[in-house]
Amino acid sequence: MIPQPPPRPRDTEADGARTPRALPCDQLSGLLRTGPFSEALRMAIRGRGLSLSRLQDRLSQHGAPVTAATISAWQSGKCRPERPHALMALAALESILGLPATALSSLLAPPKPRGRWVNAAAARPSLAEAWSGLLHDTLDAVETRWTAHLTCVSRHHRVDIDAQGREAALWSRQVLRAETDGPDRYVVSYQSDQPGPAPVLRPSSPERVGAVSQDPAHGTLVAELLFDRPLARGETVIVEYLLEHAVTRPTAHQAGLYLQVPVRECVIEVRFDPAAPPPTSCYAFHIPHASPAEARERVLRLDASLRTHTVGLDLAPSRFGIRWSWDGS
User: Fold this and answer.
1) 120-325: same fold as 25-108?
2) Any idea where the domains of the chain sit in the sequence?
3) Residue 138 · residue 214 · CB < 8 Å
4) Using a CB cutoff of 8 Å and minimum separation of 24, what contacts does 44-49 make?
5) Whether pTM exceeds 0.85
6) In which region does residue 190 sit, left (phi positive, over 0), alpha (psi from -120 to 50) or beta (all else)?
7) How would residue 80 be classed by pLDDT, with cut points 50, 70 and 90?
């Protein structure tokens, strides 16, 4: 009789019902109560005994695809899910890992600020906090002490997409109000979806560029825009600048802002090159920092010039923008 090989272990992904590997349940329960998010996710994945590639496959089956590299970055603390599709993937991940709904997403919420406009400066996070630590190294080269003392009254953010579907330029105009005497600069912060050289910053007069720092490994840029003089309390200033890419960038699928402080009016506009086929779908998205599970999306239409936009009023700290897709992407 020919000996038969031992039966293969049951597929860990077959129906999500596999008995998890032994793990310190008390530790996982504690992490799900207190965080941090990255450690709780790492412990949950370890307890389920699933590889990142298998998690990627399961998420694709759930209609919420993210890469294994992205999941790895989440559990290492390098970044966290923020965009609507990432939060949808996180919800699917909770189900795959056998966790209660919102068990992980609830750990993303920072402390809610007290008050919306009154004394808002005291509750504002630093740039490093708002960008989840990605700007720590680049921020060392710029002066950020006035950031918490400038209120953004309005903001207009326009992105131009070239005929190859890549981000060609980004124009921004903001109206800022000083909440104390002394602000003499504004810090521009930018992060690309992919690593690579930062765009070139071109301010409009009378602002001029001060210190600049960038991190190609994370696709980040921070730079000072210097005012022509310090502002007095209650005084407003218009800051306008252009960011142009000097090198070819990957295909773009979204344009948005990470609003670290409340904004009364915010306009996001995207202009697609008429020489290329238009995107097959466009959505406006809004993800409050204090309650990321409440992410919202709505369908946008393109006009005859292949432009679209979204407007937000009285926005709390959040991610706000537009995403789009083409056939096959």
Assistant:
1) no
2) 25-108, 120-325
3) yes
4) 44/97, 44/99, 44/104, 45/71, 45/75, 45/97, 46/21, 47/20, 47/21, 47/23, 47/97, 48/12, 48/18, 48/20, 48/21, 48/96, 48/97, 48/98, 49/12, 49/18, 49/20, 49/21
5) no
6) beta
7) confident
Question: What's the token pair of residue 241?
Answer: 């600048």
- Which tokens in the block code for residue 90? 């996180």
CATH topology of domain 25-108: 434 Repressor (Amino-terminal Domain) (1.10.260)
12 band by pLDDT with thresholds 50, 70 and 90: very low
The answer to whether 263 and 312 are in contact (CB under 8 A) is: yes
Q: pLDDT: is 44 or 88 the higher one?
A: 44
Pull the structure tokens for residue 206: 């009378």
* Higher-pLDDT residue of 176, 138: 176
The architecture in CATH of the region 120-325 reads: Sandwich (2.60)
